[in-house]
């Protein structure tokens, strides 16, 4: 957070009026509000300026920064939340100067101290970025959302839920989508069922095999019912054949929930290969092909994928058409399999409730 200190001898309100000369219609500003180079009724003057926000956004970056630094100083000194909100709404509604509006909002975010106002500002920045096709400009901020969300201490959980859901549905990369869905789910145990089912389906779709275990250990997993309860059972059993039947029978339903059925099939195949390696230090291409429901010619690729995800340590014998799983003796590997068992036991308990 920036602390704005007035180092000028001039009244900040009067300085702001001078910086907007020719850009803002000041006819409605009464003479008694400005006297002897000082703004006496600054709140009334600010309301008039905010109603002509397009003028405040005129000029170069330095001009805009100067004006909104003064505005932030005045807003902080008055501690008028309603007045600040009126400016946020005005900047959010700008359609022709989105970049300057985002610049102004960013400056305000850094200067304003109240948590609910900072949340409203961040939402306004996102709205401008979305409407002006400038999401790439705020991706670094979204990737560090945990740092920003620490400021939103007085914002209701329900408001943050809706905001995280909105972000998760934007055209951003899948890993970032997954991050916001996880935040959404972890924010509350009382997520609306419609959001919850869609969130879980998208989360599984956007995640790779190495992340599935952490997803299915989320406390809210016991809320899953119907089709998704059946899907989790299949993930639990890492049964490719059962999944293929499930996918064929529920394709329309899964599509309606935004579920990437093909990517999930890839995930199950990777986990199925790891499960085979866990029980057999050496196994044939034929065994792996049967387990994964693929041809023997494809096995090499699936081994490489599993190794890439750090889920399997194995060597391929192309001559004998065998795979030798090297048992990892590291604590990390042992912990991985231990966690798998704990998760599966937890699923069984949750699904039996």
UniProtKB/TrEMBL annotation:
Q: Which family does it belong to?
A: Belongs to the CSN7/EIF3M family. CSN7 subfamily.
- Organism annotation: Blepharisma stoltei
Q: Transmembrane segments in this chain: where?
A: none
Q: Which GO terms describe its biological process?
A: cytoplasmic translational initiation
Q: Do you know which InterPro entries this protein is assigned to?
A: COPS7/eIF3m, PCI_dom
Q: Which Pfam families match?
A: PCI
- State the PANTHER family in the record: COP9 SIGNALOSOME COMPLEX SUBUNIT 7/DENDRITIC CELL PROTEIN GA17, EUKARYOTIC TRANSLATION INITIATION FACTOR 3 SUBUNIT M
The record places domain PCI at 259-343
- State the protein's name: PCI domain-containing protein
Q: State a GO cellular component annotated for this protein.
A: eukaryotic translation initiation factor 3 complex
Q: Which SMART domains match?
A: PINT
């Amino acid at each position: 957070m920036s602390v704005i200190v007035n180092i000028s001898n001039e009244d900040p309100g009067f300085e702001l009026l001078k910086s907007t000369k020719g850009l803002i219609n000041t006819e409605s500003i009464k003479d008694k509000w400005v006297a002897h180079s000082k703004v006496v009724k600054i709140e009334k003057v600010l309301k008039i300026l905010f109603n002509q926000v397009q003028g405040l956004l005129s000029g170069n970056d330095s001009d805009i920064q100067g004006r909104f630094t003064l505005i932030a100083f005045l807003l902080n000194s008055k501690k008028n939340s309603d007045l600040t909100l009126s400016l946020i709404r005005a900047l959010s509604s700008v359609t022709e100067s989105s970049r300057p509006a985002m610049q102004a909002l960013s400056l305000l975010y850094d200067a304003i101290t109240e948590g609910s106002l900072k949340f409203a500002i961040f939402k306004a920045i996102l709205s401008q970025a979305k409407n002006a096709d400038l999401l790439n400009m705020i991706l670094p901020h979204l990737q560090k959302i945990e740092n920003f969300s620490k400021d939103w201490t007085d914002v209701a959980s329900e408001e943050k839920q809706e905001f995280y859901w909105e972000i998760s549905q934007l055209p951003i990369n899948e890993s970032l989508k997954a991050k916001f869905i996880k935040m959404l789910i972890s924010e509350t145990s009382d997520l609306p069922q419609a959001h919850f089912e869609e969130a879980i389906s998208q989360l599984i779709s956007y995640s790779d095999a190495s992340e599935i275990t952490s997803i299915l250990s989320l406390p809210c997993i016991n809320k899953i019912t119907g089709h998704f309860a059946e899907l989790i059972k299949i993930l639990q059993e890492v049964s490719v054949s059962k999944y293929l039947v499930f996918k064929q029978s529920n394709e329309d339903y899964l599509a309606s929930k935004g579920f990437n059925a093909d990517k999930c099939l890839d995930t199950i195949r990777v986990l199925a290969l790891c499960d085979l390696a866990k029980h057999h230090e050496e196994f044939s291409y034929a065994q792996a092909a049967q387990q994964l429901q693929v041809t023997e010619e494809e096995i090499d690729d699936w081994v490489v994928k599993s190794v890439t995800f750090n889920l399997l340590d194995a060597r391929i014998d192309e001559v004998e058409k065998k795979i030798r799983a090297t048992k990892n003796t590291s604590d990390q590997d042992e912990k991985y399999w231990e966690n798998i068992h704990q998760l599966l036991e937890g699923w069984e308990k949750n699904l039996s409730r």
